[in-house]
Amino acid sequence: MLRIGLIGTGTVGGGVIQILEQKIAEYKEKLGVELELSCICAKSEEEVAPYKAKGYKVSTNADEMIAGDDIDVLVELAGGYNMPRKWILAALESGKHVVTANKALLAKYGHEIFPLAAKKGLHVLFEAAVGGGIPIIRSVQEGFVGSTVESLSCIINGTCNYILSRMAEEGLDFDVVLKDAQKLGFAEADPTFDIEGIDSAHKTALLASLCSGKRVDFEKIHVTGISKITAQDIAFAKELGCCVKLLGIYHRDGDRVDARVHPCFVPNTNLLSNVNGVINAVYLKCDNLGETVQTGAGAGRLPTASAVVADLVSLARSTDQGSRKALPMGWFNVENSATLVPISETSARYYLRFTSRDACGVLAKITKILADNNISIETIIQKNVNDPGKVSIVVITEKTLDSKLSKAVDAVNSLSEIVEKSQVIRFLA
Amino acid sequence: MLRIGLIGTGTVGGGVIQILEQKIAEYKEKLGVELELSCICAKSEEEVAPYKAKGYKVSTNADEMIAGDDIDVLVELAGGYNMPRKWILAALESGKHVVTANKALLAKYGHEIFPLAAKKGLHVLFEAAVGGGIPIIRSVQEGFVGSTVESLSCIINGTCNYILSRMAEEGLDFDVVLKDAQKLGFAEADPTFDIEGIDSAHKTALLASLCSGKRVDFEKIHVTGISKITAQDIAFAKELGCCVKLLGIYHRDGDRVDARVHPCFVPNTNLLSNVNGVINAVYLKCDNLGETVQTGAGAGRLPTASAVVADLVSLARSTDQGSRKALPMGWFNVENSATLVPISETSARYYLRFTSRDACGVLAKITKILADNNISIETIIQKNVNDPGKVSIVVITEKTLDSKLSKAVDAVNSLSEIVEKSQVIRFLA
After folding, report:
1. Element housing A163 (H / E)
2. Which of A30, B88, B179, B368 has its CA 20 to 30 A from that of B22?
3. How far does B312 lie from chain A, in Å, by closest CA?
4. Which residues of A carry out catalysis?
């Protein structure tokens, strides 16, 4: 019997209660696994009232629930940093396992949480924290344990993927689609966290930690969001047989970790290019296993709740009879901080879009700057844009070191003919 | 400490030894999980000699190894039916866990193996049996346990997918590509098992059992292979915005199970359409989780071996400290046989290709037969084929019951103008 104490009755918390009500009998009958929702906790009496009416034990005092003897596992679905951090540490101190979907918390305070769990021999499970319905944590920690992950690219923010997909389908500008996405509930009122790539960076930090076995500090990850992507960039991408995706990226680079989040030109032949709307996807390349892609709902009430419940069943199977060994510190060593590859040392093919006055000789100046910086050009496209008197010059470079490229782009930006900050987007490969 | 007894030093067995040598120290250091390759067993002294030379304990007597006290888990990678069945049952009888990649054996004798394991409280793990590098067994059994699988479509035979992909890319006929695939090692000398869909049926039976929680007998599954697919069918598929894939299919149909294997027209917008070559993919639709797709290497030495090793690590984590509860009968109840939906009761949109003498009035006769059987036509394409005097008539039907369609096609086949057996391929959706 695994006795569950749940904090949070919002979207995901409500979904967990719904699924447990649906499935608890089935788990007992088919898996011999007994779950019990022992206490439901939320901030206010109003929030817990409907569950109290149904006969559940409820509480508005999380500390008390955690300190008590009535639960074996704390399910933290409140969100935020401070209180959840306190609750989770207290739960572990008092011998309770933890299940959470809080990627922001784990990315920020994992170095406190995982070592304490390891010391106490307790499980901290977080399948729902990354990729909602995609069992990617379980896959990396268990399914792919016979291989070393060499690299990973993932679409792990549904809001960004929704916006980029609609921009591509309808030729619309970023701001227009964002507003509509907010209206439809696919983007928050304050969308910064999503569109500037911070949410993706939290998740990428967790995945990079799992893949590398080292602690990857999400604050050290290079992040570029999608708010500067224009309809024009997406039209050029199409012309080049690509689409634009916000990707979380991890590469093993000797002893260092290359982890970053930025928009990418993804060729239409790549399996990630077909992943549209709020769908998430994770591409992995492993030494023994080769390449795999997992695709699924990235967020949403029931997909996320379903991942939480899967963790609970896993935990119950592990603790019902004897104790399955917990993965030490979530399989990565938080003492062992990863050295990240600075973005300046990474290389890629680049899409550069320069906007200049329609003046004679600009192209010559740009190509000279690129040549002076030893940057080889693969393709050049020059087009008039809608603004009269303005010209877009798109350059696709061969594989170039980021530091070299940045220097050249800075030089181009300082040309008097250049009227907008130049756009720089990496190709996935 | 989990002591491993391995039977089979062939492709996959050799790969398992290779990965264990690579990773055993890492598992101990990072996961605190100790694996030991305690005995390597093969048919002949020649096969085990290289491992004996390396210092491993070896054996040519599997029965003795299984009966002894030196191993905790039997890893069966010999293949075939009779001996592996005997070994696995003996291992379970004497208290050893089992890891195997033998889908044929599990599809045929799972009803003996799983109940015995359940009775003894032992694990039978078989991640490597389906989809090689895709952790699909783990996903269905654990990651998706918070949902009910409503339907599943999968590309799970690399040989067939390789042949169909090359037919599509190069416009070649089946026989030509098959010969080349045999030369390149992508098809066996006797390819029947693969190209006639039997291997896919084994795997589909296992997946359908896991999804339905019932025993799905692979002999009851409707199977059509790919040997009758022509270059012309694939060209028509392209024209219709589709590709042809051999799919394993599962649908929950009330209390019954709809499980089958046959070629399908897959629209190019579907994620499965992009899965080419020897790659495998599994699409799942779940009630709570929504849709997911997992793609990866379907076979091959290291991908398959990597899945076996993942099972061993899982087992070691479960048995090192206390005992993680084994999933009863691999999560499905072999006592509870599934009632399968007869293929005649299934419905689909159909691609029909009729080959007739270039005679007046054939089209009228065909359309009359279809109309008499209440089959609605969505599209008709008529083309001259290379053979002079022959005409191909392609009909795409609206959604039609199989029994109705079969009756109509039989009637068309008996027309004197029809010179070849008519082709019938279902659309995925």
Report:
1. helix A158-170
2. B88
3. 9
4. 203
Main-chain dihedrals φ then ψ at residue A131, nearest 5 degrees: 70, 25
Whole-number Å distance between alpha carbons of B59 and A47 = 65
8 Å CB contact of B292 and A133: yes
Nearest residue on chain A to B16, alpha-carbon basis: A146
Asked if A215 contacts A148 with a C-beta cutoff of 8 angstroms, the reply is no
Q: What is the pLDDT of residues B276-314, one digit of tens each?
A: 999 999 999 999 999 999 999 988 899 999 999 999 998
Report the residue of B215, B272, B274, B292 to disrupt the A interface, i.e. the one with the largest count of A CBs within 10 Å: B292
Number of residues in chain B: 429
Amino acid, single-letter form, for residue A405: L
Residue A318 CB partners (closer than 8 Å, separation 6+) = A123, A324, A326, B318, B324, B325
Known binding residues of A for NADPH are: 103
Give the architecture (CATH level 2) of B2-132+301-334.
3-Layer(aba) Sandwich (3.40)
Contact in structure between A268 and A192 (CB atoms under 8 Å):
no
Topology of domain B142-297, per CATH?
A: Dihydrodipicolinate Reductase; domain 2 (3.30.360)
Selection from A265, A258, A228 nearest residue A397 by Cα: A265
pLDDT per residue as tens digits for the range A152-183: 999 999 999 999 999 999 999 999 999 999 99
- Top-level class of domain A344-427: alpha beta
Task: Tell me the CATH number for domain A2-132+301-337.
Answer: 3.40.50.720
ipTM reported for the complex, 2 dp: 0.88
Beta bridge partners of B124: B98
Distance, first Cα to last Cα, chain B:
49
SS3 category, A342? coil
The list of chain A residues with pLDDT below 70 reads 320-334, 385
| Residues in chain A, overall count | 429
What are A363-397's pLDDT values in tens digits? 999 999 999 999 999 999 987 767 778 899 999 99
- Closest CA of chain A from B85, distance in Å: 25
Closest Cα to residue A210, out of B31, B90, B349?
B31
Q: Which residues contact B176 (CB under 8 A, 6 or more apart)?
A: none
Nearest to A294, CA basis, from B146, B295, B288, B291: B295
Annotated binding site of A: 7-14, 103, 188
- Taking phi first (over 0 means left), then psi (-120 to 50 degrees means alpha), and beta for anything else, what does residue B95 get? left
- The answer to whether the CB atoms of B147 and A306 lie below 8 A apart is yes
Nearest CA in chain A to B314: A142
CB B205 within 8 A of CB B198: no
List the domain boundaries for chain B.
2-132+301-334, 142-297, 344-427
- Is B188 labelled as part of a ligand binding site? yes
Burial class (CB in 10 A: 0-12, 13-18, 19+), A172: middle
Determine the longest span between alpha carbons in chain B, in angstroms.
79
Tell me the CATH architecture of domain A136-298.
2-Layer Sandwich (3.30)
Can you tell me the distance from the alpha carbon of A112 to that of B250, in angstroms, rounded to the nearest whole number?
45
Out of A15, A274, A324, name the one closest to residue B274 (CB).
A274
Q: Which residues of A touch B309 (CB under 8 A)?
A: 145-146
Chain A interface mutation, best of B324, B327, B329, B332, highest count of A Cβ atoms under 10 Å: B324
B interface test, pick of A324, A327, A331, A335 with most B CB neighbours within 10 Å: A324
